[in-house]
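[step 3/7] fold_predict: job queued, chain A
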Amino acid sequence: MAGDSRFPDVDTDGSEKSEEMEIVVNVGGVRQVFYGDNLNQYPETRLAELVNCLSGGYDSIFSLCDDYDPGKREFYFDRDPDAFKCIIDVYYFGEIHMKKGICPICFKNEMEFWKVDLKFLDDCCKAHLSEKKEELEEIARRVQLILDDLGVDASESRWKRCQKCIWKFLEKPESSYPARVIAVLSFLFILISSVVMCVGTIPDLQVVDAEGNRMEHPTLDSIETACIGWFTMEYVLRLISSPNKLHFALSFMNIVDVLAILPFYVSLTLTHLGAKLMELSNVQQAVQALRIMRIARIFKLARHSSGLQTLTYALKRSFKELGLLLMYLAVGIFVFSALGYTMEQSHPETLFKSIPQSFWWAIITMTTVGYGDIYPKTTLGKLNAAISFLCGVIAIALPIHPIINNFVRYYNKQRVLETAAKHELELMELNSAEGKATGSRNELEDFSREGKDGPFYSSRIKVSHSDTFIQLLSEEKHYRTRLQSCK
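[step 4/7] structure written:
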């Protein structure tokens, strides 16, 4: 049969039309029967090519399937049957929906194998596929960053290696124990600086200068100077060791670092040189305004807190919900403030002098604060206040649940990505060990063939190895990893 280019059961005269042909496809043990008129709706797909491949012989058939039974006219494929059941929907419904529990990346690979265009995949499934692609890219990025930190390029200059060492030392606390100590010290300096800023405003701890003005205690001022010195040294070292200076300077957290440091030096400059250029009172006012900017250093805590970073990302992803919240409140504030102003005009001692002034009352009422400086005195005004209070509670509560969901989803996602990146590194280490073991086994086998006691020596030496290899990103020979098997 190997020498026969055509199968005996195939009508080479074409009397059997492809539209009426019935073929059987066996995918992973699951048999499916198809008719040519259905498959030929999409002639570029693999199943449609099966209809016309019988007259092409072995080469044509086995280029499309893994095996073929000419008696049953059954094509065999060693593919995922669950994904195949979803993909064949395109021949009947014109679209494809991916079932839950199927890896989106593997499903995409199955669609490519069956030569079905991704445009037939439903939009909801495309969104799921895009999300998984982003996750895999993030895992690959994290793994590559860790490998870059572990790897040492001998061709680099000593200065480049020193830069990498400083950058890893200051930016990646997980890289070593001393790096963790530096991160903890930086965190403590931020806390101490924030506490000193608050304690310095207590009148009992302030001192009076020669002109009778209150100023911070010299001890607190010395502590503040030491903290600023630490922040300055840390920022300069990170800037020098940064691989991309422009990206570093424009990063949000680094801009926060500059805003936390800059007021100290500007105040110092104005204190010593500003008196010659402007009046002393103006200098003091400028210094006080700059000292307020020291509150920016509290945002430095986000660099050392994954929880704050997660909260920031959740709020960023919740702009739509926050916009709805502000819109609800804005409409309610305008409506209830106008109603409150109108209803309170009949009272001789009304506190609602104008609608813009009533905005303040509506804001503190709808947000359930209620300072009590402005309140209604008429019955209708009190009824309006009660309704505005209830509407404010509902308006605030509605968008909270999606914001919490975004926070929990991102937090869990980050933990999964971190675990997956560590797992990838473990698999790479395992492959590295197995590769060395395999290399040693090959060397020992060569030695056994060349040595005196070759057969006996070869039979006694057993080195464990596996047929499944994990790719090392730095090697030229590529083996498939769990990460790449999903791509």
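[step 5/7] annotate
The first strand starts at residue 22 and ends at 27.
Confidence is low (pLDDT under 50) at residues 1-16, 450-487.
exit 0
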